[in-house]
Amino acid sequence: EPDVTIVSGLKDVAVSEGDDVTFRCQVSHENARDVEWKLQDVALQNNEMNEISVEKGKIHTLTLRKVTEQDIGTVTFRVGPHTSTA
User: Fold this and answer.
1) Can you say whether the dihedral through the CA atoms of 34, 39, 44, 49 is positive or negative?
2) Any transmembrane segments, and where (predicted)?
């Protein structure tokens, strides 16, 4: 299996309380396995507050819905040994 790397990393975002915010990270290969999103070192799951998806096979997205002050912190995207933070 090829080593999947991060081609385009996360970018810092400022957002108002109650808004949705989306983070994108592009990887080098489609169907990347061993992918993880974290907020403040807590692994995120796909649910009504966090929408995790993949666009065009290589662009991994995380949308945090209706953010609050508790959501302030570092978002981390990891694929294999590679990470990107914002």
Assistant:
1) negative
2) none
Phi and psi, residue 50, nearest 5°: -125, 120
- Predicted model pTM: 0.94
Tell me the pLDDT tens digit for each residue of 3-38: 899 999 999 999 999 999 999 999 999 999 899 999
Domain boundaries, given as residue ranges, for the chain: 6-85
Beta-carbon contacts of residue 55 (< 8 Å; ≥ 6 apart): 61
Domain 6-85: which topology? Immunoglobulin-like (2.60.40)
Q: Is it the case that residue 1 has pLDDT exceeding 70?
A: no
